[in-house]
Amino acid sequence: MLSVAWSNDAKSIFSGSSDGLIRCWDSTCFHEKYRITAGLGGAGSGHELCIWSLLFLRCGTLVSGDSSGSVQFWDSRHGTLLQAHTYHKGDVNALATVPSQNKVFSAGSDGQVILYKISRDNRASDKEVTKEQAHKWVYVGYVRVHIHDVKALTMAVPICKEDALPEEKTKKIRRRENPLVFSYHKWAHLGVPMLISGGDDTKLFAYSAREFTQFAPHNFCPAPQRPLINLARDSIAYGDSVMLVQSANWLDVLLVAVQDKSTPSTSSRGDATVRHLARLKSKGSRKIISSAASTNGMMLAYSDCVKPCLFALRHNGGKKYTLDKLELPKGLPFSHSMLFSADSSNLILSGYDGKIYVVDITTKEIAKIFHLTRKMDATTSSKEPPVTKMFLSADGQWLAAVNCSGDIYILNLEVQRQHWFIPRMNDGSVTSAGFCPKNNALVVTTSKNEVYVFDVEAKQLGDWSKRYTHYLPRRFQEFPGEVIGLSFPPLSSSSVVVYSARAMCFIDFGLPVVLDGQLPNSAVVSAEKTESQNGSKRKLKRKSRDEQPRQEKRNNFDFFAFKDPVLFVGHLSDNSVLMVEKRWMDVVEGFGTPVHRHIYGT
């Protein structure tokens, strides 16, 4: 059995198998009602045909996609064929429909995403023609942006408004309208369905479901998640930095050595050497949810789906390092996020129960449990969503905890109480955050490509945000990929590097925000267009340009596009930035062979 689909009334189940048959089952008694031989009229039949995908529509039509490249429409009441389309040049792997179910999309191993639309037949006036026969599914067009098999299709409808929590009053936000309109936002609107495809080329694309062939698909970040890398910049291992890399079932402890942290480098490669120190595997191959490294690099922690664990990195002389397990208090829940205090004496955990635990590593006891609340004057805390991200200020006083809904709780660790609650900002999820090293200003980025700066101590939005947050340059609004992290120069009080897997952007809150039309001509470049996508000649030109030191004046919101996907960016000093990248060619080598298509004349 390769595919299944429920009928609308849940009385029948349809299954597709590798013998080329579609079976209809009675869901109450589990008896087979009838079977369909899908290979009739297709390129394959019998055991050569695989039914990879099934889709049931409200009108009673069953849609199938098979290994012959056929998309067939069936009358589910009688099991008869209504129509068959053979526009795919390979297996049809996925099917999807819009909420109104008057359009069907198919995707296959040939990289195509094809649209079919229902249309009324001219024979509809004939009384002998059934309703199913009176409507025909016609081919509309295709889009091919994937370079390998398309394995998944889904229909997403961006939510217009989230329901308020009980006893919570919604506040009307007054702000000036953003005058900028971008190509992606011409069709991507709240409440408007969009088609999303995923392929073996690791790409995710979004399409306009209403105007499928009129707008180019939007390529967005396939993994908009926090970086799975922790850098202990102040580690005591001979002045080098300890780096913790999280995988699904293990942690790798690496030692990063830089030739000269104080001298700016003009090359993007060859300045850092990495040595593997140890590998820590989870018990029973449990999935690791979160991990953390202390600022000195000597304490490591991780949490799987059962409980958190703590380890000490010991130097045994020479190049030998070992990991010793340390005890933690019993009863700690597994954690979605964790980090160490500034002095590495405490481990801070965000439990799945919505509470934050502070563990004293020396005494092996729970020093404090924070019960998060939205109302600062509330005597009892309500049930809060779990915290998925945490960020600590450089001096260890402030802790910002972000829950899965995008709300932020500010905790004062010195007085051990909650200081402030910041609700979800402009309906955007928090993608990254961090405290400026010198002034403890909290910088937050959201999924809407907005940047907020908060004065935590004064419990208010910073002056910069009040003036510029909703008037950012167009090139930042079109940030390629979703922001996954921030990095602050250690000695700066006003600048930050914002990065995604595809690019990074320099922001100085002390400089004015210059809109795109006010920049020199050389700087007016969309970040999406800076990626190397237009041929080898352009790649060679950019490569030679990148290898030369940049002498031009740096502008606020300057972008730098990455050649390969970047997993992590972190400052080692004010003049030195460590980037961890994954060579794209290494990823491509792991792809399967795409469908061979003969090109005329070759």
UniProtKB/TrEMBL annotation:
Stretch list, region Disordered: 526-551
InterPro entries xrefs: PCN (IPR044622), WD40_rpt (IPR001680)
A biological process term (GO) from this entry: meristem maintenance
Presence of the UniProt keyword Nuclease in the record: no
The WD repeat ranges on this chain: 1-26
Keywords: WD repeat
Protein known as: Anaphase-promoting complex subunit 4 WD40 domain-containing protein
Species this chain originates from: Zizania palustris
